[in-house]
Amino acid sequence: MTFDRAVGLIPYLQRLGISHFYASPIFTALSGSTHGYDVTDANEIDPAIGGREGFDRLANALKEAGIGLILDIVPNHMASSLENAWWYDVIEHGENSRYAHHFDIDWSRRLTLPFLGDTFEQALENGEIAIKPDPKTGRPALACYDAFYPLAPESWQDDPDGVLQITDKAKIAELHDRQPWRLMSWRDAPHDLSFRRFFEITGLVGVRVEDPTVFDDTHRLILELVHAGAVNGLRIDHVDGLADPKAYLERLRQQAGEACYITVEKILGEGEQLPADWPISGTTGYEFIASLSNALVDGQQLAALRDAYSDELGKPVNISAELRAAKLLMVGKNFEGEFTLLLRLAAAIAETEGVTLEEETLGKALRELLVAFPVYRTYGTAAGLPPADSALLQKIADKVRAGVNAPDADALDFLLRLLAGEISAAVADKATTFRTKFQQLTGPLMAKSVEDTLFFRQNMALALNEVGAEPVPRTFSTALFHAEMQTRLERQPDALSATSTHDTKRGEDARARLYTLTEAPDLWAEYVSRWREMNHSAVKALEDGVAPKPSVEWMLYQALAGLWPPRLQPQDKAALKALEERFLPFVEKALREAKSRTNWGDSNDPYEEAVLGYASHLLSPDNQAFLQDFHQSLQPFIRAGLVNTLTQTLVKLTAPGVPDIYQGSEGLNYSLVDPDNRREPNYSALEQQLAAQAKPDFSHEEAWFSGQLKQQVIAQILHARQQQPTLFRHGDYLPLDASGEQAERVLAFARTLNDTVLIVVTPRLVFSTEEVPLSNPKRWAETAIALSGALANREYRDLLSGERRRVGDTLDLASGTGHALVLLSESP
Questions:
Q1: C-alpha distances in angstroms, 634 versus 520, 561, 578, 709?
Q2: Long-range contacts formed by 372-376: CB under 8 A, 24+ apart
Q3: What is the pLDDT of residues 781-802, one digit of tens each?
Q4: Ramachandran category for residue 827: left, alpha or beta (phi over 0 → left; psi -120 to 50 → alpha)
């Protein structure tokens, strides 16, 4: 998406009611980057999308339209690429480079460059490495295919022509040994890396923004755009990756000014809140998705779905054990190097302190502490741990001590003292380094263990396998939802309320549909058993077991159920082919992320081919018996899912928080995990659809199935938000209770501010009605909501239908239109 193309969308965004345009990183990134998080120059706007001139055109057009601009910025990492001039300089000059300490590099050894397909020795033997002039500089470089690694000047300046003439492999190896860096295989990165990377991605190197010089160098253009008024807000990517998030945010706030809207990408665990002393507006909203599940999951029947899944597997699932296994895998393999570094630091400090501990004993304690961490991180600094984090650490330690895998008590106590800063002044700096590295590891460990391993292994309910969700069983209820919204209003009323992002595991409407499986678990299990039998011939017997096994089949049918377009017909060969082209990459990713029988670093080709073949068979036009059955069986889930879409959308638009509408999600979003969810929406179709109808038409079935109804509801409520900004930002949140036959199928709440009242009533758990549109008021017979105080005896206007109605002390749902209500009253 170029700046100039984005300018063309502004009139549409205005009609939709958008207040701010929220852009992914716009700074110069790797050539061909599709996302911008692999920044190579933080002080240049990417020429590939229009450069500074294009940006200025967009910023000016947005300002003229009265729309603000929020930029996503990436302080934690940059691309470890030769395209990055700072990184190139570090490779060339080593620790003498001006930028040597801009990156989080361990300079006690040579800089590792893990970009070879094999060891350096083997690559050299294969003739893949030679000395050639760098095409850009003309200076001698170590060439490997299209990459030219600059040589340290002192290694060639005395005889540049002679160096360029070297062809002897032994002499090339000797020259390589004289560099401040060494080339190595990418396979060795997990256990032998000299720089902090972003999660497991060696192509992204950690940046030390805790250093004021580095902060200034990486934020010069960002702050210039903020001060010029071109940018109104900043979204901070992966704030937990920073050495000291609070200090960073305080510096950013001080330099960006109080008016700048700042949110952070931060995953909150269950019951966890943002530190109250962070000077920001809130998170980017993953916890809001988890809150919504309380309103849309049938908690009473979830156990039945779990039992059905266990029956498919032939055994019950112990999620706690599965989580532990995933974390142990990450600690022992994927993050082996980070773990080893921590262990060596701890052992060195112990030796200095005169604490006698065997490395194996200390390692077990460190491993158990990491595995037991229930949140992304603590926020200790050189001054020690904040009181809340100190209490959390003690709680974790108590759990570790009481566990069946309890480590040596002395080793655990030593690590706790180390993290708390209860250590002698002689090793205070090393203890601070240990604490920082520990805190920068727990986040990636949690993310990769849960979101990118466990959630691809355990497939009971894919709708619950979402970023920010809890991996262990929990309760779901509207009471919990209401409590979380009241806390949200109190703690972060200006946080983003997300339902889809570029990182969510599936689009919001796919998730809304899959929630309905919890309403009919026995029926879903019956369908899966029948479909497995129908497609049994596509299952392959391999040396390492059948492919796919039952748990993977269960996953495939759920994923396909979430992806299936509402109006797709089984005979449509072109539509099936288009679906297959999206489904198969997802299946491959799901298998590799699960890391059970294949993974990204060591793929199991026969297994992958067998499962992909099965997935392809499901969507083959020749498989009509299954396709017809699948399509027909899915219809009630599709219809109930569309009602969930309505409820999810209305809640996001009216509950505490700032609605974040991810690209194209004003229409129906049935996307899969990235890269599928990053496909460009059909903006032309969306524009035409919005222009075709001004107000929501709940009686028109096609409006539900096309996404037009969702889009119209968004436009209607967003314009109301513009007229009542204070109510939506600061208004109290009041849960409302329904009574009567359909009480459990209603979610209701009010927002109040002074004399202004908003009442929201929307359906939930409607699977058994199989009714879309929800146009029959009789379905709400004997169902009402009691009103009291400022809510009662008022005239309200329905923001969705435009109708006015006088309401006493009871809101009778059967007297309405049968669909959701959003009632606004500005005076008693």
A1: 12, 7, 19, 21
A2: 372/396, 372/399, 372/400, 372/403, 373/442, 373/445, 373/446, 374/269, 375/268, 375/269, 375/272, 375/442, 375/446, 376/240, 376/266, 376/267, 376/269, 376/442, 376/443, 376/446, 376/447
A3: 789 999 999 999 999 999 999 9
A4: beta
| Cα of 738 vs its chain's centroid, Å | 35
pLDDT value of residue 697: 85
Taking only the tens place, the pLDDT of each residue in 715-745 is 999 999 999 999 999 999 999 999 998 899 9
Task: Give the number of other Cβ atoms within 10 Å of residue 237's Cβ.
Answer: 21
pLDDT at residue 777, as a whole number: 65
Residue type, 230: A
Q: 169 is written with which tokens? A: 């492999």
For 372-402, b/e burial (b = at least 16 CB within 10 A) is: bbbbbbbbbbeebbbeebbebbeebbeebee
- Rounded to whole angstroms, the Cα distance separating 250 from 256 reads 10
CB neighbour class for 10 (10 Å; exposed up to 12, middle 13-18, buried from 19): middle
**Res 550: pLDDT:** 96
CA distance 99 to 565: 50
Please, how many CA atoms are within 13 Å of residue 378, restricted to the half-sphere of its CB?
27
The angle subtended at Cα 493 by Cα 467 and Cα 746, nearest 5°, is: 70
Q: Angle at CA 123, nearest 5°, toward 117 and 125? A: 155
Show the tokens assigned to 17: 């009611």
Measured CA to CA, the distance from residue 357 to residue 819 in angstroms comes to 67
Element (H, E) at 457: helix 455-457
Cα 541 to Cα 554: distance, rounded to the nearest angstrom: 18
685-704 average pLDDT score: 90
pTM: 0.96
Residue 771: Cβ within 10 Å count: 16
Mode of pairing for the β-strands spanning 732-736 and 68-73:
unpaired
H/E element, 147: strand 147-150
Task: Please write the tens of the pLDDT for every residue from 38-52.
Answer: 999 999 999 999 999
Smallest CA-to-CA distance from 622 within 715, 508, 549, 537 is with 537
Q: 3-class secondary structure for 19-34?
A: CEEEECCCEEECCCCC
Give the angle 516-321-347 at the CA atoms, nearest 5°.
135
SS3 384: strand
Please determine, for residue 772, whether its predicted confidence score (pLDDT) is greater than 80: no
What does the alpha-carbon distance between residue 150 and residue 156 come to, in Å, rounded to a whole number? 10
Single-letter residue type at 109: R
Distance CA 657, CA 480 (A): 17
Distance CA 176, CA 162 (A): 15
Q: Looking at residue 473, what is its pLDDT?
A: 87
pLDDT band at 154 (very low <50, low <70, confident <90, very high): very high
Nearest to 147 by CA among 175, 123, 171: 123
Whether the pLDDT of residue 470 is over 90: the answer is: no
Identify whether the C-beta of residue 787 lies closer than 8 Å to the C-beta of residue 700.
no
Residue 195 bridge partners (DSSP): 105
Q: What is the distance between the alpha carbons of residues 204 and 181, in angstroms, rounded to a whole number?
A: 17
